[in-house]
Design brief:
12 strands, elongated, TIM Barrel, alpha/beta
Length: 286
């Protein structure tokens, strides 16, 4: 799976390296000369769905463009614990100074891919898609959303610029200004680029009815109790409108199958990027 935007990825990596190396790796640079050569292997300490191997490669290539990198797996592959996932050979300074940055990317991205894959497997038989949200680490969104895809999930909007979502605070402020929600929804017709999806976040059944009065593409049922969700889905399906149903809010591995039984089109899960257990990797000189 190719990285989404290699130029942006390299900038992210350079920022991470600058944070860690700063003015120089005083330990490594004191012990080893600039011409010292070394080889190392990277090991997955946990069973996982791996993500971030091309990122780790770029870490070492930025520090030593002549280094040799060999990945044993492709991103999105399932890897058993204690398997060697990649090897790298080149300048010792580059390998030792880039070690932690490379492993940090692998650790977080593989954690996201692994957790995403667990959600995907829970609903696989229901033909429902698991989507991420914008609840990502600042500056790392393109990598974390890439990791979601490695785990079999799908990306929701990348940012505020590529999709319209009228959320709860938009609605509250409009009500405070006494602007009818239906007018707001209708105002987007012709105001956004053709093909731009319009989504409405419904907090209750009244919001669902309002959304159905306009031509929205997606109705998000957000943080509703199960009984209310069931009624909301029934209302939308009964309307016969060509609209997707998204359920979001409080989705966990324990309740996702029950939510899937309601047969929405999309289940979005913030936890796959904001509450992930990291996967442990190590780098060993050989």
């Amino acid at each position: 799976m190719p990285l989404p935007d290699i130029k942006k990825v390299r900038e992210i990596i350079k920022t991470a390296l600058a944070e860690d190396i700063g003015s120089g790796d005083i330990t490594t640079n004191h012990i080893f000369s600039p011409t010292e050569i070394a080889s190392a292997k990277i090991i997955a300490k946990d069973t996982c769905v791996i993500s971030g191997l091309p990122v780790a490669k770029e870490v070492f290539k930025i520090l030593d463009k002549k280094c040799t990198w060999r990945a044993k797996y492709k991103d999105g592959s399932k890897v058993k614990a204690y398997k060697v996932v990649a090897t790298v050979s080149g300048r010792a300074r580059a390998i030792l100074s880039g070690e932690r940055t490379a492993l940090n990317f692998l650790s977080r991205m593989s954690g996201i891919a692994t957790l995403t894959n667990k959600f995907v497997n829970k609903v696989r038989k229901k033909a429902i898609e698991i989507f991420d949200t914008r609840k990502t680490s600042p500056g790392l969104r393109i990598l974390e959303k890439y990791a979601v895809k490695c785990g079999g999930g799908k990306n929701h909007r990348m940012g505020l610029y590529d999709m319209v979502i009228i959320k709860d605070n938009h609605i509250r402020l409009c009500k405070k200004r006494r602007i009818p929600i239906v007018h707001i929804l209708d105002s987007f017709k012709g105001a956004v680029t053709r093909g731009t999806k319009i989504e409405f976040e419904a907090q209750n059944l009244r919001d669902v009815e309002l959304a159905l009065q306009s031509d929205v593409d997606i109705i998000m049922l957000d943080n509703m109790e199960y009984k209310t969700l069931k009624r909301a889905v029934k209302i939308i399906r009964k309307s016969k409108k060509d609209v997707l149903i998204e359920i979001s809010g409080g989705i966990t591995l324990k309740n996702v199958e029950r939510i899937a039984n309601l047969k929405p089109d999309i289940i979005s899960v913030g936890g796959i990027t904001h509450s992930i257990p990291a996967i442990d990797f190590s780098l060993e000189i050989v």
